[in-house]
Amino acid sequence: MRKLAILSGMGGLAAVIAVTLPSTAQDNAKLEQLKSQGFARVAIANEPPYTAVAADGKVSGAAPDVARVIFQRLGVPEIVASISEYGAMIPGLQAGRHDVVTAGLFMKPERCAAVAYSEPVLCDAEALLVKKGNPKGFKSYADIAKDTSATIGAPGGGTEEKLALEAGVPRERVIVVPDGQSGLKMVQDGRIDAYSLPVLSINDLVKKANDPNLQVVAPVEGAPVYCDGAAFKKGDEALRDAFNVELAKLKESGEFAKIVEPYGFSAAAAMSTTMEKLCTAK
Ligand code: 6CS
Fold it and tell me: In what residue span(s) does the Solute-binding protein family 3/N-terminal domain sit (predicted)?
């Protein structure tokens, strides 16, 4: 709410009357800054179908596409993306290198403590990419932990890395892999026994690889279904709230489903839960 002081003279006696006005754009200084800047700087990972950068630099993927529409409705015409490792996204946001993370950064309590998440956008289970026939019979991260010779690749600072470590896979057997193409190649070359990303990301890699010697294990047993939200810097809650208002309108109108479902995501899944629930999940 904004206070406005009104000076009024009655019989020469000046009086200050403070009135409380409804929230105005002035309360959303960050949004005003982005509007005058003309773009919002978004962090992405370039992991289709969540996020993608074409050879000509065009940014797409379900998360940036939702964010682009919302920012346009808020009066910010463009988004400008920079590629970041998942583990660097929150530090980059906090350091002011990004205005928002729109990358499929799954909501988990420790991340919710560090950023201001929007309501849910993209939900997915986890998957393992293995050699055809799944020779080591992996169904879960625990299975990989039990096999003392097994190695798993995962994004640095990503959810799959954390799940593998929490399941008991020793640090030296969890290999940080910079991107999906590298993970695919490392499985194909037998340098890792499994590569883990969310289901839709692994399926996209396999579809493009067109390699009959690969197999997808999905969902990974024991791993939860996660949802992301747009992640804003703590302190930018007014911008997050404005984003949420437009996100709710998109969900209500059916436009949200029209954006995310062609990428394979379920609009209903995102609409069936809340940031509150996901940020307090055990
Ligand atoms: O939020 C994460 O950590 C995970 N999200 C995606 C979309 N891919 C991998 C990453 O580990």
Answer: 39-267
CB of 273 within 8 A of CB of 120? yes
Amino acid letter, 12: G
Question: Of the residues 83, 106, 182, which should be mutated to test ligand 1's pocket, given the most ligand atoms within 8 Å of the CB?
Answer: 106
For the domain covering 126-217, report its CATH number. Answer: 3.40.190.10
Centroid of ligand 1 to alpha carbon of 73 (angstroms): 27
Asked, colleague to colleague, whether 30-119+227-280 and 126-217 share their fold, the answer is yes
Atom of ligand 1 nearest to the CA of 197: 9
SS3 96: coil
Domain 30-119+227-280 belongs to what architecture? 3-Layer(aba) Sandwich (3.40)
pTM: 0.90
Could you give the dihedral angle defined by the CA atoms of residues 267, 269, 274 and 280, in that order, rounded to the nearest 10 degrees? -150
User: Domain extents for the chain?
Assistant: 30-119+227-280, 126-217
pLDDT digits (tens, 9 = 90+) for 155-208: 999 999 999 999 999 999 999 999 999 999 999 999 999 999 999 999 999 999
Ligand 1: atom nearest CA of 228 is: 1
Among 159, 195, 202, 203, residue to substitute to test ligand 1 (most atoms within 8 Å of Cβ): 159
For residue 165, give the nearest of 182, 141, 193 by alpha carbon.
141
